[in-house]
Amino acid sequence: MALPSDATLADAGEFGLISEIVRHFPQGEHVLVGPGDDAAVLRVRTGHVVVSTDLMVEGRHFRRDWASASDVGHRAAAQNLSDINAMGGQATSLTVGLAAPADLPVAWVLEFAAGFAEECALVGASVVGGDLTRADQVVIAVTVLGAVTESPVLRSGARPGDVLALTGRQGWAAGGLAVLGRGFRSPRALVEAYRRPAPPYAAGRVGAEAGATSMIDVSDGLLAEAGHLADASGVAINVTTGAFEVPEPLVAVGAAVGADPMSFILGGGDDHALLATFPHPSAVPDGWSVIGAVAEGEGVTVDGAPYDGPTGWTHF
Amino acid sequence: MALPSDATLADAGEFGLISEIVRHFPQGEHVLVGPGDDAAVLRVRTGHVVVSTDLMVEGRHFRRDWASASDVGHRAAAQNLSDINAMGGQATSLTVGLAAPADLPVAWVLEFAAGFAEECALVGASVVGGDLTRADQVVIAVTVLGAVTESPVLRSGARPGDVLALTGRQGWAAGGLAVLGRGFRSPRALVEAYRRPAPPYAAGRVGAEAGATSMIDVSDGLLAEAGHLADASGVAINVTTGAFEVPEPLVAVGAAVGADPMSFILGGGDDHALLATFPHPSAVPDGWSVIGAVAEGEGVTVDGAPYDGPTGWTHF
Asked: PurM-like C-terminal domain spans which residues (chains A, B) (predicted)?
């Protein structure tokens, strides 16, 4: 395909563009049939498949002026790969649907695909299929499949007496979003964390093998996700703010925007940290921090009291 | 959830609505973990999984004034189930992502979900997960997983000397779309065929067991799909118009709109008929009609000559 550098989707047409996109997607050995047929065919070794799906909408989950196409690709893959991580599974295969305006540059789509593929390569997963069609705004629909070799870790297994533990950056993306929302571009570390999350991909299986009783990834906000664990498990969860070291960039942003930096940690999502419960502090693996405890009851408290700050993302 | 009958998505909120939606989705025995966790967990018996994904965009693939929410649900499921059918597989599990304006009525979403579930029930497949978020227009993202018990039937296996065969209604949906596009509502059989396709779900496995050398479902247009088979297989395909009985409603619509009714059959998609090649006429199963032949060469001809009518759907 020889297109000018400013070509749009309307110039390229669906089929020519798909063949360009697919070049970015190497296929793993488990992929018997990759993109290009009615369906992909995957070899499954474990007898179980985990599957999750997520939508990202331009203007709501990302802005093209706040993040590069590559960043958006990384994020779209990361938030899905993280869901498999949160089950204690290993992501193997993804599909990606892209609905986009006809005037979207082809270059944006190819850069998105390259970023998406780079993120998938971090965990050895293949992009095995997709769809491309026209819409008024960019909508990205990703489905991820994975393998679980033992029992998956659900949200519902937390028990009174368990400890609550966290691994991965938390609050950085929310801090970066606050910065971008005010028209700034620094602290750069936070902006980069928002644009391109770095989920702790190895930690899900480590947590599962260490005996995590429940696990979830923090996409909508730490307290919101703790609430999901509490609801699904029928327990109460208390988060201890003293357990967190507030990173310096969050202190700086808090001072700049007049916010308690702890609000980014407690209310922020999008970093895709992992939150899990373990039966005893000694079971908590290296790299995880104990940040709270599970008790009989219901709901989530912070330092023993109800929390009245922002607790997460509302989809409508 | 007690909402007024004219409640919108903004009134309902994401989590309350999801619990209402999920009630429409019974879970099969192969579903170890259904909707509500980070990912669904499925038992896989055959060692292989087939997976396909499709997007449907309001105003492009459907109009809410031309089809009920239930119809849109049936179609969204059908076009994905059909992709598994076209591999000779058995669909087992689907995810559905819905991006929608905040003012979309809750009733539309629930009726969509019910129609989607009804179509899945026709083949015994379960809706195991999904996502719901806000967008400017309705975008539906479906991914379907299935099992293949033997080698899947690809697009690439057609050989010179094979016969081309078709099963299922073909051209009806295109006729119905032509009717709706002119502001009419009859012939009702065609309009209904457009609103709610009836793919020949049992035929994919029958075709595979009968030794189909290649197979595809007709979603973009018969000649376009024949072209995909020819390209992937490195062969030429000729379609014989005399092999078709033109159904009476298509004759009527052709006369009404001044079109050759054969153009609906050759160019129309959306019925999700199955198109396949078999090594010999005697291998073609009951319910399939021989409509052409495979030869050495490339491309698609109609009655031995190039065809200059519409040959399918352009996505951009």
From this structure: 159-250
